[in-house]
Amino acid sequence: MLNKTLLAWSLTCAIVSLALSGGRASQVPASQQPEQRQPSEVSLIIGDRIGTPPRFAVPDFLALSDDPETIAAAQTMGEVLWNDLNFEREFYMIPRDTYASIPGATSITDVSFDLWRELGTDGVVIGTVRRVGELLEVQVRLWNIRGQESVFGREYTGS
Fold first, then answer.
1. CA–CA separation, 85 vs 91, rounded Å?
2. Taken in order 137, 106, 62, 95, is the CA torsion positive or negative?
3. Burial zone of 92 (CB within 10 Å; 0-12 exposed, 13-18 middle, 19+ buried)
């Protein structure tokens, strides 16, 4: 009998509480809610040789405009990026003359995955340069050769 009375009393309290709150569940004040944190780091693994730097290639960027200035800019950007990454010594940079036998890309998504894999490449940076009026548009993508997917991409516009 005591259990039935206790159950009835609990049910009555719950109904009264619900009625007083207007049918809404009680909300925790914002100051008492747990803080949601964004991850402070993003990691990306390219390659399968643990303990060794990933092997990257940076061929000349593809000039999408046929004027001499854009063609020279595309070649220079590829060379400078390769030199900068090589200087940092975070990656093993495949020498540029080594991949002369791999056909140049015809677009930013045209990647010869099988040929790059034969060369032992983990990632390849493909870039394009296009003149639009007085501006240059540059697109860059890092391709994971083993996964055959783009893992990083950026687009820049400037003079």
1. 7
2. positive
3. middle
Rounded to an integer, what distance in angstroms lies between the CA atom of residue 34 and that of residue 48? 38
One DSSP character per residue, the chain reads: -HHHHHHHHHHHHHHHHHHHTTTPPP---GGGSPPP---S-------S-TTS--EEE-PPPEESS-SHHHHHHHHHHHHHHHHHHHHHTSSEEPPGGGGTTSPPPSSTT---HHHHHHTT-SEEEEEEEEEETTEEEEEEEEEETTTTEEEEEEEEEE-
Q: Which residue has the higher pLDDT, 67 or 38?
A: 67
Instruction: Name the average pLDDT for the chain.
Output: 79
List phi, psi (to 5°) of 68: -60, -35
Please state the CATH superfamily assignment of the domain spanning residues 55-158 in this structure. TolB, N-terminal domain (3.40.50.10070)
Phi, psi for residue 140 in degrees, rounded to 5: -135, 135
**What type of residue is 130?**
R
Lowest model confidence (mean pLDDT) among 28-42, 101-115, 137-151: 28-42
- CA nearest 58: which of 118, 122, 106? 122
For tokens 């200035």, what's the residue? 69
Domain map (residue ranges) of the chain: 55-158
- Global pTM value: 0.67
